[in-house]
Amino acid sequence: MNELSAINVISKRNFKPRWVAPTLREIKRRKDVEDDRNGGPKIFHRSTFLEWLNYDAEIFAFSNRLGEKFNEATLRTALTHKSYVERETARLSDIGVDSYLQIQNNEELAVAGGALISKFTNGYLRAVFTRVPEELIMAMHDFLTSTSNLEIVGKHIGLGDLMLCSDFPCESETYVKSLKAVVAALAESSGEERARIFVQDLVVTQLYGLDINELWNPADPVGNLTDILKREGKAEPEFRLIKHSGQNSVLAVYYVGVYSDKNFIAEGAGESLEIAKEMAAREALKQLFHTEDSMKALPFGRQLKNIQSKIVQLENQPNLPLSKWISEKVTSAVH
């Protein structure tokens, strides 16, 4: 075969009729229209795939992906939602089969797991944020244990492919219950210490990169700062205008400093004097609580090895509330 004939063969092999491209575009257009009508592309459960041959193997693979050791029966229970048991019972009853199933659902495990997640989260937050009032601890706790946050964690570890439930795509509450049940199953199988590390690695790490001060909005930062300074025997805060720019314009900005006993504490900026005063008080509270923008990165993983005993100790020992907060008491509580 000469060179010219070889080129002709290759060109014929790569040639596509003119109707192929417009046909593919039309198919994609129709698929996009159908997806928009159905609220997105149709999602298929993993059990419909050819690889789904053995649920035991899937359970085993899930445990190894997490790097944890579970009791297989307990983990199965943790992944079985009440709706699945009810659906299977009704299906067997419809075909005349004895509808009593020896299958346990994850309701009890979910309750126990929810309590464990709450306890482990509080312990971590109180051990790391030693100077923070309990109100901010509770705000961070509520964020970490919220339905939306726990749903994200459950999806990321692949619970959606393993949960046995009647609804698909799975509802948010189903993800949350299953995750809580998995934590309880891990505590039963490998002990609370492994479950505590599991929660720290997957749930508490959702704080990474967040400004924790945005999770808590004190109603009266100026009044809170005044009360704290009074309890510490210091003079009431004095707010002074440091500088301003663009006065009487839509781009006005004021810088206000807060002082006590003629000592500078912090400064804040705002589009009005009142807002700048409030921001200065917030900055002062950040410094007292050690939650400034320049605070150290939160410890995770191996960095927690030396303070795990402290975390356990503080799980049931709340921080000082804002109404009683004082630096001396916080320091004595830390040491």
UniProtKB/TrEMBL annotation:
<dbReference type="GO" id="GO:0003725">
    <property type="term" value="F:double-stranded RNA binding"/>
</dbReference>
<dbReference type="GO" id="GO:0005739">
    <property type="term" value="C:mitochondrion"/>
</dbReference>
<feature type="domain" description="DRBM">
    <location>
        <begin position="220"/>
        <end position="290"/>
    </location>
</feature>
<keyword id="KW-0689">Ribosomal protein</keyword>
<keyword id="KW-0809">Transit peptide</keyword>
<keyword id="KW-0694">RNA-binding</keyword>
<dbReference type="InterPro" id="IPR014720">
    <property type="entry name" value="dsRBD_dom"/>
</dbReference>
<dbReference type="InterPro" id="IPR036389">
    <property type="entry name" value="RNase_III_sf"/>
</dbReference>
<dbReference type="Pfam" id="PF22935">
    <property type="entry name" value="RM44_endonuclase"/>
</dbReference>
<protein>
    <recommendedName>
        <fullName>Large ribosomal subunit protein mL44</fullName>
    </recommendedName>
</protein>
<dbReference type="GO" id="GO:0006396">
    <property type="term" value="P:RNA processing"/>
</dbReference>
<keyword id="KW-0496">Mitochondrion</keyword>
<comment type="similarity">
    <text>Belongs to the ribonuclease III family. Mitochondrion-specific ribosomal protein mL44 subfamily.</text>
</comment>
<dbReference type="GO" id="GO:0004525">
    <property type="term" value="F:ribonuclease III activity"/>
</dbReference>
<feature type="domain" description="RNase III">
    <location>
        <begin position="46"/>
        <end position="191"/>
    </location>
</feature>
<dbReference type="InterPro" id="IPR044444">
    <property type="entry name" value="Ribosomal_mL44_DSRM_metazoa"/>
</dbReference>
<dbReference type="InterPro" id="IPR000999">
    <property type="entry name" value="RNase_III_dom"/>
</dbReference>
<dbReference type="InterPro" id="IPR055189">
    <property type="entry name" value="RM44_endonuclase"/>
</dbReference>
<dbReference type="GO" id="GO:0005840">
    <property type="term" value="C:ribosome"/>
</dbReference>
<dbReference type="GO" id="GO:1990904">
    <property type="term" value="C:ribonucleoprotein complex"/>
</dbReference>
<dbReference type="Pfam" id="PF22892">
    <property type="entry name" value="DSRM_MRPL44"/>
</dbReference>
<keyword id="KW-0687">Ribonucleoprotein</keyword>
